[in-house]
Structure formats: structure tokens, C-alpha cells
Amino acid sequence: MAINFLSPSSPSSSCSISRVLNPPAIILLGIPATASAATFHHRGCLSIEIFSKARNNDRNQKLGGLASLPLQQSNRTLFQCNGVSPINTVTLKDVKLFSLFQEIGIHERGTKLLLENNPDLTFRPVNTICDRIQSLEKLGIHCHKLGRLILKHPDLLTAKEIDSFVHFVTVDLESKIEPLKLEHLFNTTDPRFFVGFEGNVKLLLHHGVPQEKLAHVLNNVNLAKALCLKSAEELERTIIFLNRFGGVDFIIRRPVILNYDLDGQLIPRFTYLYELSEKDEDATATVFRKVPGVLTYTVDHLKDHVEFLRSFAGLTNQEIFRIVLLYPNVFSASRKRKLRPRLDFLKQCGLNSRDIFKFLIKAPLFLTLSFDKNLAYKLVFLVKIGYKNRTKDLARAMGAITRISCKNFQQVIGLYLNYGLTCNDILIMSKKHPQVLQYNHESLEEKMDYLIEDMGREVRELLGFPAFLGYKLDTRIKFRYEERKKVSGEGMSISKLLCVSAEKFRSKKKKKSPLL
């Protein structure tokens, strides 16, 4: 159905989409041209929902029904050309399209450009366009976000791949993919690549990804790189390759690994560390199982870190791999901001290459801890209790307290002081047995209470045998003390009591037992 009206001038017989969107400033069907879009909106704006319900009645709609449509005022002229006499016309379809796009935040200017640049839209039934918009809204992309998306990528309204994609996401995947992930996908990927998405997702399920973990995986990968742009064959090869690191469990822990290219990225990175490990495949796989993120570093990044440890710290490839095997996060530390100043500190404390290796095997976390929030605080405490700067003793003490928090370290020092030990006593104990600085303060308190109250010893006995604080209270200290007290009484050496092996302790117990 077309609405014809007279035009004051008809300079050309050619017609354009822009004129279809801009009715002239004359009285149309008895409605003054000065009436605003809001006037029509209050009378009943044609929303997507209303249109969807009423579209079957469109053919029976009478001319007077146009009073309810949200036409906007304009001073331009509409044309429908018949080749000889131009007849100025606006169709009901044009009005519906305008209203439809207005509902998702696309106003007159945007609609005009959209139709001018995408003439295919003018040949599609309005019902079809409405259905497509509604299906996209089911993905959780609404109103103005959807409007902006369509303005940038109008093929979302015409691409044939969209319907099957939306159906799979909303029905099979129960709409569990986050709308932001889908927006990013639509913004970066041509719809023709959506064809393989469903098959690749089902391939993940086929290889063992649990249904309940599937949404977690999909929401933590780049949907385009991992599942749209990869062929099923390439994805399957990637999954099989990852089986040596734990397969499905590895993917669930680090879904982003699926973003990477197998031949160009994953295999070269594995191969580099495999060569560094002297071709120990199990050890190399262990590195990636511990920290899957290592596979996300480029080969150049890995090489630069290894070369730095080799040249600056004097470590061998074998030593470097042993450190990496113990603590793969060494690759996450900045060479300039973390590795260099920390290794320089160890060198200033008098440690040579062999000493540095031994230190890092015991305390690799030292390389990645924050200086301002951790290391500096601990250094101040160590100096306060008597450690001298730039000494091996200071380095050993730092290694001992690397794993504990600053709060626990402070509580440990405070505990020793509360039990009557001096800073010098703590220094003597920690030089003999650096671990006394790293024990949990609560377990320390229990052991010191037992030593003083139950065993009747002086706290200063710890100066001669600080390792006492490292033994388990119930299964070692209490058990042996109670057993030996039955035979030898209370005046026994705590070092001899605890240092002997379990086998020797049992044999001595049998010899001295009057029942045996």
C-alpha cells in the first residue's frame, strides 16, 4: 500500500532511499506537518513487540491507521518514480522500518545512512528484519547497544548464518555466554565464520569438557580466535596436543590457551623449554601443568629471560631449568624491574653463581615479590634485630622469610620478645637455624608453652637447639617426651630426644623398657 501526495516541485525522475525517509512539510492524511514524533508516539508508537504481534494484520490495515506511526517532521520530498511522472510516495513499509530502528536507538539520520549504504534491507520483508532484531535481543544485547552494533555491522540483519548461531547459543547453550563476549564477537568477526562455531563447541564436549564447565570455558576464551576462525581439525589437534599437560583439566584451568595457534605458537614454545630441559618431556610438561600461563609467553620472551639468568647470574641451562621447574612464574617477572635488582642484591651480599642457584632453589618466590610492600619491610626488621647489610647471613635470612607474610614475620619477632628473648638471642637462633623466622606464630606459641610449662625448661635453651621449634608438637615432641620420661625421667637432652631417627628411638625404647 502506498500513500501519494503532491509535491511543490519534482526536479528529477530518479528516486533515492534518503527521500523515502523524509516526508515533505505538508498536510498528510489530515495531519499537520508541524505535528511532532512525540505526538504520534503518545497515540501509540509501533514498537518491535507491538509490530511482531500485529504484523499478520498489516494487509488489512486501513489508511487512517498511519496516525499512530511515529513519523518525524521534515522539509524534504519523497518520490516514487514511475519513469515519466514522479509521484511522491511513502510506503507503510518505510514507516515501519523507521519505527523499528527507532525502538533500538537508531534515529532518522542513522536510519537514512543505514538504508542508503545497505540497499538489501529495503528488499527484505519488515517481518524478517523484526524477527532478526528480536533474536539478537535474546542474546542479552538490548536497545541502544544493539542499535550501535547494527549501525556498525548491518550484515547482522541480513547474514544467513545469524539465525542458526543465535538458536544454538540460546537453546543448546541456554544463553550462558555473556552478552559482552557476544558483542565483541559481532564487532570483530564476519558472520560467515560463525558456521563452524557450533561444531567446535560440540568438539570440546566430545573430548571431555563437562557440560557444567562449558560456559566457563566459552566465557574465558576469544570466541573468534578459539572457535570461529579455527577449523575443527585444527581445534582437535590442539586438544590432543594439550593432553600431555592434562588435556581437559588444563583447558578448564586456562581456557585462554585455546586462543593460540598450534603450529605457530604453542608447539614452538613447548619445544624451546623441551630443549632447555635437555629433552625431558615429562619435566617440560610439569612446568606447563603447574603454570599453564607459561604457554602464553612468546619464544622471544622465554629466550630473553633464560639469557638474562645465564649472563647476569651466571647460571647454567640445567640450573635455570631446575629453577623454572620449581617456580615457572619466574617468566612472569620483569627483567628490568624485578630480576635485575633482586639478583644484584644477592651479588652484593657476596653470593656467587653457585650460591645464587642454591638460594633460588630454596626461595624462588624472592624474584617476584614486591619490594615496597614486602621485601623492604622485611629487610628493615632483619637489620633491627642485628643483621648487617650486604652479608651472606642477611641473604640467607631473606631466603628463609620469603614465603611468609610481613604480618606473620612481625608476629614471630614479637612472640620471641614477649617470651623474654632479646634481639641478639633471635639473631643467634636464626643464624643457626634460619627457619625460626618463618614458622607460624600460633604453632610457635604452643611449642614454647609446652617447652616451658610441661617440660619445665628455660626458654633460653632454644639458643642451643633452635631446631626444636621445627618439630611437630603432637607427633614428635609430646610423643617422645612422654615416652622417654617414663624411662629416663625429666632431665634429658632435648636435642638427643628429637634428633635421633624414629628407628633408633624405637630400639632405645625397647632396650630400656623393663617389660622387654
UniProtKB/TrEMBL annotation:
SMART domains: Mterf. GO terms for biological process: DNA-templated transcription termination. The keyword Lipid metabolism does not apply. InterPro entries: MTERF, MTERF_sf. Pfam families: mTERF. Signal peptide: none annotated. GO terms for molecular function: nucleic acid binding. Belongs to the mTERF family. This is Uncharacterized protein. It comes from Rhododendron griersonianum.
